[in-house]
Amino acid sequence: MSIRLDHIDLSILRALQNDGRMTNAELAEQVFLSPTPCLRRVKRLEKLGVIDHYTAEINRSLVGIEISAFVFVQLQRNSKKNAHNFEQAVAELNEVQECFVVTGEYDYLLNVATTNLKSYDEFIKEKLGDIETVSKVDTTIVLNQVKSRRQLPL
Q1: Cβ–Cβ < 8 Å for 3, 50
Q2: Residue 67 located in a structural domain
Q3: Are 89 and 130 within one domain?
Q4: DSSP-derived secondary structure letter, 127
Q5: Which residue segment(s) compose the domain that 28 sits in?
Q6: 66 and 137 in one domain?
Q7: 70-120: per-residue pLDDT in tens?
Q8: pLDDT at 102
Q9: Distance (Å, rounded) from C-alpha 75 to C-alpha 71?
Q10: Cα–Cα distance between 28 and 35 in angstroms, integer?
Q11: Which uninterrupted H or E stretch holds 69?
Q12: Contacts of 137 (CB under 8 A, 6+ apart)
């Protein structure tokens, strides 16, 4: 389902993607609105779920997160129950940053962050490996991140 957005809504979203901490007055000035209608539009976008949440991007290396990995997971049997059980278990794992249902040989792709190789090994053996529905796990360790972009191309 797509929500109809006009050029002002898109301007607001672009501005907030670049700086989610700007004041309403700064935002209003940037999108050429007065503060009250600007705030009304932001609240509407939040209520509709277009603006899902606000967050701070943290420099991984400065907080000790040295390992970034993409983990491909295959379930024992592709069923609604197994998928539900796996997704519930993964939702509880703090190391999992993102979880995608994918096509092809694997059923899921996880974006995983840990402090070091030892903690990654423990994550695979003691957490992901303990999920009963998991049949196969393949890992790709990220050596260097060339680009990271959270902003959508609006």
Answers
A1: yes
A2: yes
A3: yes
A4: I
A5: 7-47
A6: yes
A7: 999 999 988 999 999 999 999 999 999 999 999 999 999 999 999 999 999
A8: 98
A9: 13
A10: 5
A11: strand 67-75
A12: 71, 72, 73, 74, 124, 128, 129
